């Protein structure tokens, strides 16, 4: 193979020492410089029509390995480092992970940027440069502590740009500045950019070092400090609107300027630009573009509405009513009065066309329903998994589907194989190269592996790959939080934001069941390690209580010598992309146990499958598509169907108290409030969670609990047949190609964006 990089030469040149003599810190610096230079030299992807993927979140993860992969240098660099006694993984530990996202929607945006660049399409991400990101999660007294995440202090990827804009709010204006992060594509020369707007005059000093409380009224200083600042009070909600308007006003000005630079006369703007609106957080870009086209560029209102309606496309990521954004018109008028005027006019247009209050943009309480702006004044609405899109069409957005059936489509989510296979599991990537050749790296097609599921060599090699990944995960968890995990443990993982609908509490109730079962003398054949990870919104009290329950169970079990050798609970502190990269390759069991109908898609389900974990799941989101692909014998499904759940909500007949009273269930729920357990934990939190589950249980953990316990026990029994298990895992890997984000992006482009 041709030598594309000579690290030893670079080291001798720049440092005056051999690669073997250089420190990890020095090598990190060399690699950063090398990668940055190569990214800077790459030409921008071009084409007449350009995509702007606007998102409040981009959960991009560390970039060193990712960019080495995209530049085609990863394997060579790893090999040269290994030869000189260094480990790329250890060097990448020195990189701070950007804190620009919170969960699935943000990680999806990051996978999409990677795939857009890989397909050679012209498309940039547009978002904000949050100085302290979401927040850094610490655990103190078995509870979540939210701290500022100081990722920016050591950031090497941001490239400052000259561009600045003025953003005019109702009673003041601010100036922005722009930073870019280069996004190279895999196996092709061009690049795109992630464009992050920041606030000139932003003041990091107004945030204390040990909390995320800051002056929410200091808007000229705080607009780009945090992602999703606490909006449980009025000041917080206003800040959110200011922040969103700051993001979209910058985005709209950028879109118009770049189109002008490329020859648009703005009446043809939709031929030059398409905007993908990632959930409703960037929805105000629609009225803002219309405002700019009319006020600044002399285009008539109706014509501007037409232009923008041909360039705006919206992705819905949630069916939870509370996550569908609604803002009081008064608040929007205070933040951006002229943009709010446009919304009022859009509402009039929508009302004139459709005499149905269910589809009005501004409701009878003068509240603006953001998604409705997207649906009336965009040309595309998509859901993120087949089931989710059906629910949108038939239930949640039914009145809109009746009006605009042609606007609706499904785009099942995907994940980039660069990060979630080549980067995080190079041993598995090497196995695949040897087993089926290297085409999969370009095409994402892993189906040839299906012919090898009975092949003894492939099976035994898969066992080695999984063992190596477990070793890496074990040392990661020991290094980061002192957890010691038995070598032969079954690794069962539930990592995702903490939310009642995701039902981490149901998993916790299983743990209580298992604990009692072991206490009763049923000793498992293999130790079981249940790994959790995820942050809870600081204002979401029940989610904090669930974290507390899990951490308290972890401590309780660790302190019980009868049970500790067989059962262990680990909650990863500050779960983020890097942690995911360590944990996902090591997993045996992927927990995807949301209440059916509530998880729009899920994307970790795809990452686990790709890395050879078996899925234990409800038929929700993309789990449905995974189950169809791998067949019933290669997945473990349980629980009420989405139709059953929707009916329970519609009829109001779910009775948590009745389910709680079943003796087997009561025993488990009451364990939380048993005196000794309460004494170990925080009584107020445990009592509140207990009472919530026993009396309300809005997301129905008790509905599926018995079936969940039985199914999980079946999974554990099946684990004992190592060969049958390995075959199932290989079937899962072989079918995972369907979830490459390259496939997803090809569909967005073919059916929505029409770039190139
Ligand atoms: C809305 C209003 C007020 C405050 C906060 C929000 C808010 C913030 C973040 C609403 C939604 C989000 C994030 C949603 C999200 O991450 N959704 C996930 O998107 C993934 C990618 O499509 C899906 O796979 C997941 O199923 C979905 O939960």
Summary of the model, kept short:
With 756 residues, this protein is an alpha/beta fold. The protein is globular, with a radius of gyration of 26 Å. The model has no long low-confidence stretch (mean pLDDT 97).
Protein architecture, described:
The strands form four sheets. Strands 1, 2, 5, 6, 7, 8, 9, 10, 13 and 14 form a ten-stranded mixed beta sheet that branches. Strand 16, helix 22 (541-558) and strand 17 form a beta-alpha-beta unit. This protein folds into three domains: 1-41 and 63-96, no CATH class; 43-61 and 97-413 and 744-753, 3-Layer(aba) Sandwich (Rossmann fold), CATH 3.40.50; 491-721, 3-Layer(aba) Sandwich (Rossmann fold). It is of the alpha/beta class and 756 residues long. Helix content is 48%, strand content 13%. It starts with 6 loop residues before the first helix and ends with a helix. The structure holds ligand 26Q. Ligand 26Q binds at residues 102-105, 108, 228, 231, 279, 317-318, 323, 325, 384, 413, 599-603, 621.
């Amino acid at each position: 193979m041709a030598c594309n990089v000579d690290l030893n030469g670079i080291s001798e040149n720049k440092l005056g020492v051999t690669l073997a003599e250089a420190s990890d810190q020095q090598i990190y610096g060399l690699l950063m410089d090398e990668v940055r230079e190569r990214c800077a030299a790459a030409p921008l992807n071009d084409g007449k029509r350009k995509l702007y993927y606007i998102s409040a979140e981009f959960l991009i993860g560390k970039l060193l390995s990712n960019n080495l992969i995209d530049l085609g240098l990863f394997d060579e660099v790893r090999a040269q480092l290994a030869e000189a006694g260094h480990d790329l993984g250890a060097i990448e530990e020195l990189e701070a992970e950007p804190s620009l996202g919170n969960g699935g929607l943000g990680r999806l945006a990051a996978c999409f940027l990677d795939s857009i660049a890989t397909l050679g399409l012209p498309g940039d991400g547009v978002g904000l440069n949050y100085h302290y990101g979401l927040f850094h999660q610490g655990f103190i007294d078995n509870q979540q502590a939210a701290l500022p995440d100081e990722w920016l202090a050591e950031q090497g990827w941001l490239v400052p740009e000259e561009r600045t804009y003025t953003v005019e709010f109702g009673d003041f204006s601010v100036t922005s500045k722009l930073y870019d992060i280069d996004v190279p594509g895999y196996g092709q020369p061009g690049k795109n950019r992630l464009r992050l707007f920041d606030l000139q005059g932003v003041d990091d000093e107004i945030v204390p070092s040990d909390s995320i409380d800051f002056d929410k009224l200091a808007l000229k200083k705080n607009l780009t400090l945090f992602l999703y600042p606490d909006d449980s009070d009025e000041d917080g909600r206003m800040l959110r609107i200011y922040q969103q308007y700051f993001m979209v006003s910058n985005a709209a000005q950028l879109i118009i300027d770049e189109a002008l630079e490329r020859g648009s006369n703005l009446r043809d703007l939709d031929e030059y630009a398409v905007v993908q609106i990632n959930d409703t957080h960037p929805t105000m870009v629609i009225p803002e573009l219309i405002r700019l086209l009319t006020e600044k560029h002399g285009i008539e209102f109706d014509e501007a509405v037409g232009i923008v309606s041909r360039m705006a496309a919206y992705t819905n990521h949630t069916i939870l009513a509370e996550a569908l954004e609604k803002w009081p018109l008064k608040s929007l008028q205070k933040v951006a009065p002229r943009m709010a005027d446009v919304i009022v006019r859009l509402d009039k247009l929508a009302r004139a066309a459709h005499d149905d209050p269910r589809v009005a943009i501004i409701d009878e309480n003068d509240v603006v329903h953001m998604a409705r702006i997207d649906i009336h004044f965009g040309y595309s609405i998509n859901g993120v998994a087949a089931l989710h899109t059906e629910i949108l069409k038939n239930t949640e957005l039914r009145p809109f589907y009746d009006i605009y059936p042609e606007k609706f489509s499904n785009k099942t989510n995907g994940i980039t194989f660069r990060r979630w296979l080549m980067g995080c599991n190079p041993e598995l990537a090497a196995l695949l190269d040897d087993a089926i050749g290297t085409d999969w790296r370009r095409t994402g097609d892993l189906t040839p592996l299906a012919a090898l599921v009975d092949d003894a060599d492939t099976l035994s090699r898969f066992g080695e790959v999984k063992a190596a990944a477990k070793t890496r995960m074990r040392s990661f968890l020991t290094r980061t939080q002192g957890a010691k995990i038995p070598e032969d443990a079954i690794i069962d993982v539930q990592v995702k934001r903490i939310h009642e609908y995701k039902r981490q509490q149901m998993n916790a109730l299983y743990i209580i069941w298992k604990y009692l079962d072991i206490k009763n003398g049923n000793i498992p054949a293999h130790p079981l390690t249940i790994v959790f990870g995820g942050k809870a919104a600081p204002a979401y009290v029940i989610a904090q209580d669930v974290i507390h329950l899990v951490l308290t169970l972890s401590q309780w079990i660790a302190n019980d010598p009868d049970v500790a050798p067989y059962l262990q609970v680990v909650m990863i502190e500050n779960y983020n992309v890097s942690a995911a990269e360590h944990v996902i390759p090591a997993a045996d069991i992927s927990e995807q146990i949301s209440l059916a109908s509530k998880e729009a898609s899920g994307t970790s389900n795809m990452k686990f499958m790709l890395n050879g974990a078996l899925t234990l799941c409800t038929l929700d989101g993309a789990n449905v598509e995974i189950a169809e692909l791998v067949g019933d014998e290669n997945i473990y499904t349980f629980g009420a169907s989405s139709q059953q759940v929707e009916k329970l909500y519609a009829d109001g007949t779910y009775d948590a108290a009745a389910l709680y009273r079943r003796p087997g269930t009561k025993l488990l729920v009451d364990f939380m409030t048993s005196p000794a357990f309460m004494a170990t934990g925080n009584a107020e939190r445990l009592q509140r969670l207990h009472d919530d589950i026993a009396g309300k249980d809005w997301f129905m953990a008790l509905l599926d609990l018995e079936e969940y316990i039985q199914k999980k026990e079946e999974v554990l029994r099946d684990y004992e047949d190592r060969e049958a298990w390995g075959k199932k895992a290989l079937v899962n890997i072989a079918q995972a190609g369907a979830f490459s984000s390259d496939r997803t992006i090809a569909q967005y482009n073919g059916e929505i964006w029409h770039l190139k």
